Amino acid sequence: MINKKRCPYGTHRVIEPKGFLPQAAKKIDNNMEIYSNEILINVKTLNIDSASFTQIKNSCKGDIECIKKTVLSIVEERGKLQNPVTGSGGMLIGTVEEIGPDIKTDLEVGDKIATLVSLSLTPLRIDEILDVKVDAEQIDIKGKAILFETGIYAKLPDDIPEKLALAVLDVAGAPAQVNKLVKPGMTVAIIGGGGKSGILCAYQAIKNVGKDGKVIVIEYSKENAQKIKDLNLAHHVIVGDATKPMEIYKQFSEISNLADVTINNVNVEGTEMSSILITKDDGIIYFFSMATSFTRAALGAEGIGKDVTMIIGNGYTKGHAELSLNIIRESNEIKKLFESKYC
Amino acid sequence: MINKKRCPYGTHRVIEPKGFLPQAAKKIDNNMEIYSNEILINVKTLNIDSASFTQIKNSCKGDIECIKKTVLSIVEERGKLQNPVTGSGGMLIGTVEEIGPDIKTDLEVGDKIATLVSLSLTPLRIDEILDVKVDAEQIDIKGKAILFETGIYAKLPDDIPEKLALAVLDVAGAPAQVNKLVKPGMTVAIIGGGGKSGILCAYQAIKNVGKDGKVIVIEYSKENAQKIKDLNLAHHVIVGDATKPMEIYKQFSEISNLADVTINNVNVEGTEMSSILITKDDGIIYFFSMATSFTRAALGAEGIGKDVTMIIGNGYTKGHAELSLNIIRESNEIKKLFESKYC
Ligand SMILES: NC(=O)c1ccc[n+]([C@@H]2O[C@H](COP(=O)([O-])OP(=O)(O)OC[C@H]3O[C@@H](n4cnc5c(N)ncnc54)[C@H](OP(=O)(O)O)[C@@H]3O)[C@@H](O)[C@H]2O)c1
Ligand SMILES: NC(=O)c1ccc[n+]([C@@H]2O[C@H](COP(=O)([O-])OP(=O)(O)OC[C@H]3O[C@@H](n4cnc5c(N)ncnc54)[C@H](OP(=O)(O)O)[C@@H]3O)[C@@H](O)[C@H]2O)c1
User: Fold this and answer.
1) Calpha distance A182→B174 (Å, rounded)
2) B83 C-alpha to center of ligand 2: Å?
């Protein structure tokens, strides 16, 4: 350990450009000797952000060796696992290996934790890739990572399998925001509602709208759509391609008034306009998808004179880890579904 | 005129990709024969979006002929003036030349209007570029444009010079949002507060915070900072580079508690993190800047565990044209300042 307290935000590890914070930096220092206000983690599994994993997988045409090579070369080049195309990262689970004396924390060496800050700003060293789980979008590694003083984390609970917790915590911000935004009686649209974050959002939305409200899920594959129906996670499910705004708008308006709140949980580009069209004037759109384009959203709404409030999906909100893990505790069906996919 | 009513959103003019709305399309049809629910405009001046103009000007190293050529080739290629790098457009003023019979409107042929939808989705034909006004970021042309049925516009007022109205209407969404977000007693930060939209936002913020509140402007050039001080548009002005988050944070926290609301009005990239750092937990950030990156904002806030609500600057909100023109009517000083720059 280097006996020096450094920047709580981790700017001391930015190699270039200087003055930036680690997330925005091109390259950060992934030397694993910690400063006195850092925490060293022995990493077990990386949970790659869905937008990032999809991009890497597609550019590799699904080839595992190519995915491994891509991941290694990103970390080699940048000192962190930040996809240069999508800008996004993911998160990790591991064991606390060393805690600098100048950091206030309830952690102890040996604790199992998930980091709740993005891999796009986390110093990471990969010694070996052990396994790539394409369906789960997870990678088992031998390696280390560092948590800065302001870095948030969650201790892994005893009652939920590790990898399931990891998968859920990755998208914990989404259902927590739904809980903030959705009120009784509302009409809520969830685009990409058949995916990981979408299912958690749908569950929370059904809970919040109560008996007078309505939740409508828009999902790409018939299979996932059926799953949502079977689990009673929506009052209606639309099977459609959210990159085709006019088609989605038509289907949506045939079965419902426009949405008070729309949650966008897809992992592909070009779905801003669908979100805007199905949301009513004065409604709210919460873009959780990392594939959202700022200008397409801003100009798209203006372009049709739609007065909607559009929110950038901050991955963090207070209590988000507990709220999302509690969904797993409450719903045995979601737990089983996620276990089959992520464990 | 083609005696057929087509899509109110203008999808019938999208050449590629099919199924997209005009704003997201690569290329739209700028044939100037209107459909029965379109309006034909005889264009006088284009007001280029600041992010777009800055990009074009820089790539041309300020050369006027190069700027002209770039603008012409964009419109040639896309059928609209949408900067392929920034994705943004701007707006225009002109005279109504023809009104399709199937459109409900209070307009008459000969009315002078400003379009309030972005040039990034407006079918445009440029016959000749008459003048490029670099400081005003405006281009006088001979040409035509088309407004779709859902396209919003404002009649140009009699009491405000045309080009001044154009300049103000371009950014009308910003002060109108400030009016929605800022309450008495708040601490408000305005990044890029010395620019066009920034000045209007500062004026509105000062009005809304009242005597117990505080408005702090962060501005790049000393000259603009002084202007803000002279006009009493802020309680404090920080001269600094918003792309350097740690420096801005330091300067800001030396003179104030963190902001309840931060408005970002810059025209350069990489200022998300400054906005996040100077905003308090549970605060709101309104990104009006078109140079905002969705992922940098989303992951940046998560990266330091900051629970802020980040809003995408929708250019439209109800009553925005009137509100912003009223600022010019109320403040003779801002009127004079803008006249010297934009008229
Ligand atoms: N803001 C944050 O902090 C944060 C944190 C983590 C993740 N994220 C982002 O959240 C998004 C969702 O993540 P996730 O893990 O929930 O992903 P996921 O499980 O892969 O789910 C994505 C869903 O979108 C659906 N979809 C894909 N293309 C579609 C289309 N054209 N039309 C309609 N639906 C479509 C998919 O349907 P099919 O499976 O049927 O194709 C799937 O159900 C990603 O963009 C990710 O980057 C954001
Ligand atoms: N969301 C929407 O619908 C919409 C509509 C219109 C415009 N916009 C966007 O709004 C933004 C502002 O437009 P505008 O017309 O007000 O632009 P503007 O008049 O050019 O103002 C930009 C301001 O930002 C300042 N600035 C530039 N770099 C800075 C830095 N590194 N640190 C601190 N301040 C810096 C500039 O200062 P100096 O002059 O001293 O360099 C200037 O005062 C643009 O990004 C534009 O694209 C959005």
Assistant:
1) 26
2) 16
Q: What is the pLDDT of residues B17-72, one digit of tens each?
A: 888 899 989 999 999 999 999 999 999 999 999 889 999 999 999 999 999 999 99
If one residue of A267, A271, A310 were mutated to test the ligand 1 pocket, choosing by the most ligand atoms within 8 A of its CB, it would be: A267
Domain ranges of chain A: 11-156, 173-342
In this structure, how many other beta carbons lie within 10 angstroms of the beta carbon of residue B54?
17
What does residue A141 show for φ and ψ, rounded to 5 degrees?
Answer: -135, 165
Alpha helix (H) residue ranges in chain B:
50-59, 64-78, 162-170, 173-181, 196-209, 222-230, 245-255, 272-277, 294-303, 320-330, 332-342
B17 upstream amide cis, omega within 30 of 0: yes
Question: Distance (Å, rounded) from C-alpha A302 to C-alpha A264?
Answer: 19
Tell me the per-residue pLDDT of B184-242, one tens digit each, with 9 for 90 and over. 999 999 999 999 999 999 999 999 999 999 999 999 999 999 999 999 999 999 999 99
Q: Which ligand is nearest to the CA of A243?
A: 1
- Among residues B137, B130, B141, the alpha carbon closest in space to that of B41 is found at B141
The SS3 call for residue A155 is strand
Q: Nearest residue of A to residue B318 by CA position?
A: A307
Taking the Cβ of residue B116 and every Cβ of chain A, the question of whether any pair is shorter than 8 Å is answered with yes
The answer to whether B20 contacts chain A (CB < 8 Å) is yes
Nearest-CB residue to B298 (from A299, A301, A313) = A313
Nearest CA in chain B to A151: B304
Take residue B78 and report the two structure tokens written for it. Answer: 């896309």
- The interface predicted TM-score of the complex, written ipTM, equals 0.91
Give per-residue pLDDT as tens, A90-127. 999 999 999 999 999 999 999 999 999 999 999 999 99
For residue B38, the one-letter residue type is E
Map residue A163 onto helix, strand or coil.
helix
Fold of B173-342: Rossmann fold (3.40.50)
The answer to whether the CB of A177 is under 6 A from ligand 1 is no
The span from the CA of B147 to the CA of B57, in Å, is: 27
Which of A:121-180 have CB within 8 Å of B?
121, 150-152, 173
Q: What angle do CA A85, A116, A76 make, to 5 degrees?
A: 45
Spatial distance between the Cα atoms of A264 and A257, rounded to a whole number of angstroms: 18
Interface of A with B in 210-249 (CB under 8 A): 243-247
- Residue B10, burial from CB neighbour count under 10 angstroms (0-12, 13-18, 19+): buried
Tell me which residue in B303, B308, B316 faces A118 most closely, judged by beta carbons: B303
CA-based angle A114:A264:A331, to the nearest 5? Answer: 55
Q: How many CB pairs under 8 A join A and B?
A: 190
State pTM to two decimals: 0.92
Name which of A24, A87, A312 is nearest B273 (Cβ-Cβ): A24
CA of B242 to the centre of ligand 1 (A): 32
